[in-house]
Design a protein that fits this description.
Length: 167
């Protein structure tokens, strides 16, 4: 028997489908238990952390005054401990602000849309990290970062629209 919000499709196919039908994917995930949403968020944060490793290796090689271990430790603290708290805060803020609209979003649905967008954009985060580590600053990195930013906003916005006005 499957859990609410988790149909037969797995996580990876949903991430891929989120690139062309994010609203449908988020609608399928509605009713996801909070503990599963937390796992989605932490998976997104872990991938984000991993995506930063090439950049930190490059930076440590170019500027050895800050060792690689210190850079990785700081990134681990920021991404795995501080960012999840900020994500919960942002989702709560969006839910609170949506109460003045015709189609408010519940806090749980706001978290779902945000956390899923973070996970769905993770392949571009990995590409951003590789570009940053292998190519370094420049037009290629800027392009990949802009694409990742727009993709995140697109998926998050579509997810919010899909769950707006539904309790």
């Amino acid at each position: 028997m499957s859990q609410p919000g988790m149909s037969q499709s797995g996580i990876l196919p949903r991430v891929v489908r989120s690139w062309w039908a994010p609203a449908k994917v988020v609608s399928e995930l509605r009713g996801m238990p909070d503990r599963v949403a937390l796992v989605v968020l932490m998976a997104a944060m872990l991938i984000t952390f991993i995506s930063q490793l090439p950049k930190h290796a490059r930076d440590a090689a170019l500027d050895p005054s800050i060792p690689l271990q210190a850079r990785i430790g700081g990134a681990l603290l920021a991404v795995m401990f501080i960012m999840p708290v900020l994500a919960y805060g942002l989702a709560s803020l969006v839910a609170a602000l949506s109460r003045v609209t015709a189609r408010p979003v519940t806090a749980q649905n706001s978290r779902l849309a945000l956390f899923w967008a973070l996970l769905a954009v993770s392949p571009l985060m990995l590409l951003t990290g590789l570009t940053s580590g292998l190519v370094g600053p420049g037009p290629a990195l800027t392009l990949v970062q802009v694409l990742a930013g727009f993709a995140f906003l697109f998926i998050w916005g579509a997810g919010l629209r899909a769950v707006a006005g539904k309790s």
